[in-house]
Design goal:
heterodimer; A: mainly beta; 7-stranded mixed beta sheet; B: mainly beta; 6-stranded mixed beta sheet; 0% helix
């Protein structure tokens, strides 16, 4: 079974620009969660999508948004980039059903904002 | 006070040593406790998962949860150089259904010297 894939793996942008990151979950998984990882704050939850609906949201400004398509693939968008948005963005997929569901992480997209 | 505290290390041990990694937390509503391992330039991978209090063993790894003290531990026996990675604890309130919103510690960087 193929794992979680994220594209692109690396991205360099300048302040004020916007960026879109993509995540393809494991086949059959309906839940996709996004996390931001920085040296200072660690791993922080951004949001979770399940069956094309946002089911859970972390404490990030509205510049961070996401969506999920009918094939469970997900994208996240960051508008008006700030230097502090430089981070590793991780996506995780899971079955999303009741009970324990392991989250499988992708390799991440390394975003650098100059 | 952060919801989850974890000593960032770094922790350096000789091969064969027993490693003890710990996290404390403040939210008594946490029910699910996980340990992830993250190698450089990779996404986190789940090592151990525990529901509520108690111990769980898997090969060289043992996870302990003490909810009365709000303290969790991961023990690695007979540590190997391949165990060198960052270890992240993670917790959540309700794992059923909604998969997101794992609260992570900042991770402990472990180095096992041959």
């Amino acid at each position: 079974k193929a794992g979680v894939t994220q594209t692109p793996r690396y991205l360099i942008k300048t302040r004020g620009q916007q960026v879109t990151l993509s995540c393809s979950p494991i086949s059959g998984h309906r839940s996709v969660s996004w996390y931001q990882q920085t040296p200072g704050q660690g791993l922080q939850f951004l949001f979770e999508y399940f069956s094309e609906t946002q089911r859970n949201k972390g404490n990030f400004p509205g510049r961070f948004s996401g969506r999920q398509f009918s094939n469970s693939r997900s994208e996240m968008n960051v508008s008006t980039l700030e230097l502090g948005d430089s981070a590793l963005y991780l996506c995780a997929s899971s079955g999303g059903t009741i009970g324990y569901n392991e989250q499988f992480f992708g390799p991440g997209t390394r975003l650098t904002v100059l | 006070q952060k919801e989850v505290e974890q000593d960032p290390g770094p922790l350096s041990v000789p091969e064969g040593a027993i490693v003890s990694l710990n996290c404390t937390y403040s939210n008594s509503a946490f029910q699910y406790f996980m340990w992830y391992r993250q190698y450089s330039r990779k996404g986190p991978e789940l090592l151990m998962y525990t529901y509520s209090s108690g111990n769980k063993e898997d090969g060289r790894f043992t996870a302990q949860v003490d909810k009365s003290s709000k303290y969790i531990s991961l023990f690695i026996r007979d540590s190997q150089p391949s165990d060198s990675a960052t270890y992240l604890c993670a917790m959540s309130v309700n794992y059923g259904g909604s998969q997101g919103n794992l609260i992570f510690g900042k991770g402990t960087k472990l180095s096992v010297k041959p």
